[in-house]
Amino acid sequence: MARKETTAAASAAEPGRLKQIALTYKMxxxxxxxxxxxxxxxxxxxxxxxxxxxxWIDHPIYLGILGFILAFLAMAxxxxxRAERAAFGQMEGQPGAAAAVLDKIGRGWTTTxxxxxxxxxxxxxxxxxxxxxxLVAEGNPNRLKALLAAEKKKMARIVSDVxxxxxxxxxxxxxxxxxxLRTTLLKLPRVxxxxxxxxxxxxxxxxxxxxSNMPLPKGPMPxxxxxxxxGPKMR
Length: 235
What we know:
The chain starts with a helix and ends in a 22-residue tail after the last helix. A four-stranded mixed sheet has the order 1-2-3-4, sandwiched between helices. It folds into two domains: 16-91, no CATH class; 97-213, no CATH class. Helix 2 (35-56) packs antiparallel against helix 3. It has helices at residues 2-31, 35-56, 60-91, 97-103, 141-158, 181-186, 194-207, 210-213, and strands at 110-117, 123-129, 132-138, 164-169. It contains eight helices and four strands, in the order H-H-H-H-E-E-E-H-E-H-H-H. The radius of gyration is 24 Å and the shape is elongated.
């Protein structure tokens, strides 16, 4: 009975995966019009090479089957990489793009988006892992310096024993491209153990952040409404 339920669940999930692949292909094709030709060429060349080797050594069936499997694998790898490149290309320059990348960085990292922001919508995100605290900023580099300095000052008061790194996302000198953000963070030296990461996250949560402390109104903001220059006054 349990085996039947598992088979039924797998069958139901299959159309969903195929639909996701189709949507990914359409998205990639909008940014990379030659994706279909490239994938087909990779598959044909890979299969052709193994089939030719099989004919040469008089084992065309075995090498043909192996070539078919490896051709499919090569096509999947090429498609995945070009789809990822197309996705990053579409995200480039969009607000919150860095937060989306940080959210997918992998296990062991805890990301808090938009811990600081200014009126020009320059924003700083925070992620915590075994490398310590990483402040990831996106926006105008000159304006971001003040935001990063203020956040580092907070970190020094709350978690002075944890290393704090800062990264500005962009294509300029000294900046990190969006597509290289995840790799850059994963290359940072690991200096904390699991319990230390948990303790750091707990202390930072106690400190609070912009999004949890800002008194945002419920529902959509009325058209034409503006935030007062003085900000909300404490009573």
